[in-house]
Predict the structure of CbbQ/NirQ/NorQ/GpvN family protein.
Amino acid sequence: MNAPLPAAVAAPFYQAQGDECRLFEAAWQQQLPVLIKGPTGCGKTRFVAHMAARLGLPLITVSCHDDLSAADLVGRHLIGDGQTVWCDGPLTRAVRQGGICYLDEVVEARKDTTVVLHPLTDDRRMLPIERTGELLEAPPSFMLVVSYNPGYQHVLKTLKPSTRQRFVAMSFDFPAPDVELAVLMQETGIAESQARQLVTLAGQLRRLTGYDLDESVSTRLLVYAAKLMMSGMSTQLACRTALAEPLSDESDTIAALLAVIDTQF
Ligand code: ADP
């Protein structure tokens, strides 16, 4: 008797904001690397997960940080049982599997680390593994996707122009109100009237200027607020906890956010 086939993995829910799904698919077909810019919590990671599942590709995600070395991406020799064994890093695994390698917050990585991406992002599509002498050719299905939040950047945290110009780039922002409404309802099961209140409040909070806010209310935080409401928290408490406190430690700023929340509810 044949073993049952594994159930097909359903693509995680993603509410499109425009043409981004078609664009991503075209970039994948043409073997082009993609850079996604946008504020934290606006749906970049969900979009990549959705597209990987839709295209039937394995997805390997790396959250970049300033200690990330080229060896962390490519691989290293490990010693065990008196033997030295080569261990592929996530980038090498994605190349071998012909999947998507997604480097989240790529500007956090050191510039000498991002240079290992260069031969993979031009028409060579090669990954030289210096330590083993291997030269891996990326299969046609391999795709490199990187993202960052332009809002966080300061002079030292930008992509080198020589790296940046190797990607086609897509700009994301918080979704339009009708899209955000659909996201909240689908993600949390919240009633439309309550979701609408949250989206209206988000619009007001995002327009708040003159305070020391690095980031404004994200779709992720709205999802959190809706989830707290679905667990029986009052709207006001849910919004205070999910939409005001996470955004700042400055008492004046929190007070201003709370004032907007209190006038809405
Ligand atoms: P980012 O990677 O931009 O920081 P995420 O992709 O992790 O943000 O999005 C945060 C959360 O917001 C997701 O887990 C999801 O619940 C929700 N979300 C944001 N945008 C969308 C969207 N367009 N469709 C579905 N869910 C979304």
Remarks:
- Strands lie at 34-37, 59-63, 75-80, 83-88, 100-104, 126-129, 134-137, 143-148, 168-171.
